[in-house]
Amino acid sequence: YKIDFNEFFALELHELQQQAEDGLIELHESGLEVTPAGRLLLRAVAMAFDQYLPWDVRSGQFSRVI
């Protein structure tokens, strides 16, 4: 697609940083890896990339996912 992933997904990566700090994912140069704890909240991880989900709903909504 010839995009700069880090630039194109800058907002999503910012949101995923919190999930990385919570131990749900590990961010790498080549992508991200869901941790065993993060597998239970995989829907929350995927929500960061959901273009149809409003931003105010995306952030901080772990309780609705569980």
Tell me the layout of helices and strands.
Blueprint: H1 5-8, H2 10-21, E1 25-28, E2 31-34, H3 36-39, H4 42-47, H5 55-58, H6 62-65
Q: Please tell me the total number of domains.
A: 1
Can you tell me the CATH architecture?
A: Orthogonal Bundle
Instruction: Enter the CATH topology name.
Output: Arc Repressor Mutant, subunit A
Class inferred from helices and paired strands: alpha+beta
Whole-number average pLDDT?
A: 84
Largest sheet: 2 strands, antiparallel
Strand order of the largest sheet: 1-2
According to CATH, what is the class?
Answer: Mainly Alpha
Query: Which percent band covers the strand fraction?
Result: 5-15%
Shape: globular
In DSSP terms, counting alpha (H) and pi (I) runs of 4 or more, how many helices? Answer: 6
User: Helix and strand string, N-terminal first?
Assistant: HHEEHHHH
- Roughly how many Å is the radius of gyration? 12 Å
Number of strands: 2
Helix percent band: 40-55%
Query: Uncertain segments of ≥5 residues (pLDDT<50)?
Result: none
Distance between the ends: 34 Å
Summary, kept brief:
This protein has 66 residues and is of the alpha+beta class.
Walkthrough of the structure:
By secondary structure, the chain is α+β, with helices and mostly antiparallel strands. It has one domain: Arc Repressor Mutant, subunit A, CATH 1.10.10.920. The chain is 52% helix and 12% strand. A hairpin with a 2-residue loop joins strand 1 and strand 2. It is globular.
